[in-house]
Amino acid sequence: MIKYLIWDAGGTLFDTYPAVVEACHAALSGFGKEAPSAWVMALCKQTTSYGIHTLANTFALDEETFNSISSARMRTSANSTSRRSPA
User: Fold this and answer.
1) Rounded to an integer, what distance in angstroms lies between the CA atom of residue 50 and that of residue 8?
2) How far is it, in rounded angstroms, from Cα 32 to Cα 50?
3) Whole-model pTM?
4) What is the pLDDT of residue 85?
5) In this structure, is residue 19 part of a structural domain?
6) Residue-averaged pLDDT of the chain
7) Structural domain includes residue 2
8) CB 3.0 to 4.6 Å from 61: which of 5, 29, 56, 70, for a disulfide?
9) Tally of domains in the chain
10) Separation between Cα atoms, residue 62 and residue 67, nearest integer Å
């Protein structure tokens, strides 16, 4: 029986923000856009959804498409990180 469950949904136990910023940059670059990393980080630290919403609106991109691309990139990044062998 499970007594306790810890869920890290973004930055509490593991620093996921660099992967989120990288995913947003990859999605933006697919649209031929760029944004400063510090700004993307600041937006996404409020919430990832807020960051994606703000970036999509700022660059007049379809939010659903932008979210799909950045989410796919985050999954790819998470999968490659989880497969790395310990140092």
Assistant:
1) 18
2) 21
3) 0.74
4) 45
5) no
6) 84
7) no
8) 56
9) 1
10) 9
Let me know if residue 11 belongs to a domain: no
Residue 14 makes CB contacts below 8 A (sequence gap 6+) with 8
Side-chain-facing half-sphere of 50: CA atoms under 13 Å: 8
Which residue is it, tokens 């937006």? Answer: 43
Pair 17, 42: CB distance under 8 Å: no
Residue 76 confidence (pLDDT): 79
Reduce the secondary structure of 28-81 to three states and give it as a string: HHHCCCCCCHHHHHHHHHHCHHHHHHHHHHHCCCCHHHHHHHHHHHHHHHHHHH
- Identify whether 55 is part of a domain: yes
Kindly report, residue by residue over 6-43, the tens digit of the pLDDT: 766 666 777 888 989 999 999 999 999 999 999 999 99
Measured distance CA(33)–CA(56) in Å, rounded: 11
Residue 66: domain span? 38-78
Length of the chain: 87
Contact yes or no for 35/4 (Cβ under 8 A): no
